[in-house]
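User: Second chain of the day. Same drill as before.
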Amino acid sequence: MNLKPITNNKELNSIEREIRVHFTLKHPHIIKLYDCLIEKELVYMIMEWAENGNVYSHLFKKGYLNENESFKYFL
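Assistant: Same format as last time:
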């Protein structure tokens, strides 16, 4: 993640909070965050591999989710 476009401390604090929250999440359906490195203006997040991709990629390819698919993912 590139921090260069971040223009104020409120945005930076929000990103830091999201990273801290993600570290605490322990669930088989949530990708695990193993480590986070900040170097200059870049944030590197070391995460569990998602073999089948993520919901965003699936949605981008398909263009939409019908009600049954949505229910399956967001249950």
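Residues 9-24 form the longest helix (16 residues).

User: Great, on to the next one.
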